Inverse folding.
C-alpha cells in the first residue's frame, strides 16, 4: 500500500517486502527509481525544492527511511511496518544480488571509497558481481561517458552515493539513458561499508537513536539536525491542527 505524507508518496512496506518489490522491478525491466525518504529530504521537498517533490512522486519505490518518517506515519494514522534505511536496504539487496546473479554498480563518494566498498561487499557476499565503480568527484562534462560505461556494463542494480538530493537528481537526469536498471540513492553508505566511517552501535540502532550516534561522530551535522524539529512541527501542524497543505 502506498500512502501520502505531506504530499509525498511512501510505500507501507517492511524491509523484506521492499526487497521483494525491487526484485519485481528488476524482473519487469526498464529504468526504475528507488528513494529512501528521510525527514530531511521530505522537509526540503515540501518547503524548499518542489522539483525534488516531483522526483519523489516519480519513484517506483519510496521507503520510510528514518524514525522521523515512521513517527509521522503514526501521527497521520497510516503507520509504516518499520524503517527501511538506505544502507540496510542496500545490504539486503546486495545479498539478494549475490544469490540471484544480479550485477551491481557503485557510483559516488570520494575517490577510492566505492572501490573499497566493492571489495568489502564481495568478501561479505560470495558470488556478488560488482561490474564497476566510479567516484563521485567527476565533472559535468564527464557524465555522458560515465553513463555510457554504466550502460555497457549492464548492471541490474545501480547504487548512487552522491548525497541527497544530488543523487536523486543525477538519477533522474540519466536513468533513461542507462535503460534497464534499478537505481537507488544511498547517501553515505559507501563510506560506512568501506570502513571509513563507523556506523552507530547496534544498541543505538535498536533504541532508534542512530541519528544521535551520527551527530556525536560528526558534530558538523548539527545544522542539518535542526530540520528534525521543523519537520515534526510541520507534521503536527498539518495533521493534528487541521491545516492541510
Amino acid at each position: 500500500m502506498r500512502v501520502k505524507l505531506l504530499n509525498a508518496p511512501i510505500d507501507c512496506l517492511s524491509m523484506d517486502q521492499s526487497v521483494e518489490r525491487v526484485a519485481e522491478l528488476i524482473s519487469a525491466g526498464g529504468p526504475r527509481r528507488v528513494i529512501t525518504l528521510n525527514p530531511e529530504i521530505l522537509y526540503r521537498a515540501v518547503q524548499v525544492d518542489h522539483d525534488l517533490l516531483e522526483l519523489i512522486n516519480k519513484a517506483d519505490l519510496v521507503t520510510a527511511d528514518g524514525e522521523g518518517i515512521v513517527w509521522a506515519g503514526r501521527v497521520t494514522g497510516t503507520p509504516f511496518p518499520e524503517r527501511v534505511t538506505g544502507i540496510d536496504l542496500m545490504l539486503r539487496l546486495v545479498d539478494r544480488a549475490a544469490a540471484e546473479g544480479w550485477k551491481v554498480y557503485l557510483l559516488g563518494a570520494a575517490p577510492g571509497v566505492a572501490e573499497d566498498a566493492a571489495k568489502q561487499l564481495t568478501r561479505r557476499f560470495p558470488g556478488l558481481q560488482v561490474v564497476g565503480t566510479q567516484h563521485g568527484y567527476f565533472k559535468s562534462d564527464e557524465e555522458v561517458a560515465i553513463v555510457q560505461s554504466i550502460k555497457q556494463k549492464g548492471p541490474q542494480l545501480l547504487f548512487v552515493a552522491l548525497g541527497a538530493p544530488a543523487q536523486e537528481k543525477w538519477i533522474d537526469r540519466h536513468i533513461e539513458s542507462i535503460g534497464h536498471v534499478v537505481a537507488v540513492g544511498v547517501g553515505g553508505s559507501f563510506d560506512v561499508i568501506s570502513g571509513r566511517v563507523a556506523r552507530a552501535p547496534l544498541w543505538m540502532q535498536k533504541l532508534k537513536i542512530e541519528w544521535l550516534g551520527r551527530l556525536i561522530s560528526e558534530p558538523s551535522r548539527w545544522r542539518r539536525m535542526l530540520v528534525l524539529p521543523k519537520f515534526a512541527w510541520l507534521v503536527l501542524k498539518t495533521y493534528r491542527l487541521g491545516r492541510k497543505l
In short: The chain has a mean pLDDT of 91.
